[in-house]
Specification:
Elements: H1 2-6, E1 19-24, H2 28-44, E2 52-57, H3 63-73, E3 78-86, H4 92-111, E4 115-122, H5 125-153
Parallel strand pairs: 1-2, 1-3, 3-4
Helix pairs in contact: 2-5, 3-4
């Protein structure tokens, strides 16, 4: 729709997109599954393997800084944040979840760059495992759609 108004053809898939993925290593069994699903879906959508950058960080609190570094480096059409925070017995869960999410949002808005925030926040590991594949694939679909939309809006 917007492409027709500006004389710009609307891209539908991931062809020609460059995507950066930042993955937390904490709860690696879940974040590895998120990453596999995300990368697989990106490839299915037409993003080339060579156009996917994949960065590992220690945990969810480190994700925003790595996203910011990728955004500053430039050349990416969209980014993905992958992590897993499981509730424990202390306030630490809320602190990590809230601060990580706020940082991801800030980077997205500051750099006008779509970021799929798939940092799972669950009550237990079973909930995380139940969501890992679906949410990883969702991340890929979201970044491709948003990168294409932003291209049409700008």
């Amino acid at each position: 729709m917007f492409g027709a108004d500006k004389g710009k053809p609307a891209r539908q898939g991931g062809e020609g997109l460059r995507i950066g993925i930042v993955q937390a290593r904490f709860n690696a069994s879940v974040t590895d599954a998120l990453a596999r699903a995300c990368r697989g879906t990106l490839l299915e959508l037409g993003v080339l393997e060579k156009d996917i950058a994949h960065v590992l960080v220690p945990g969810a609190l480190e994700i925003p800084l790595a996203l910011q570094a990728l955004a500053e480096k430039g050349g990416y059409d969209a980014l993905v944040a992958l992590g897993c925070i499981v509730r424990g017995e202390t306030y630490h869960f809320e602190l990590v979840a809230n601060e990580s999410a706020a940082g991801v949002t800030r980077v997205s808005l500051d750099y006008r760059l779509p970021i799929a925030n798939v940092v799972l926040t669950t009550e237990n590991m079973e909930q995380a495992i139940a969501r890992q594949t679906e949410k990883g694939a969702d991340a890929a679909r979201v970044v491709v759609e948003m990168a294409n939309l932003l291209d049409q809006l700008t």
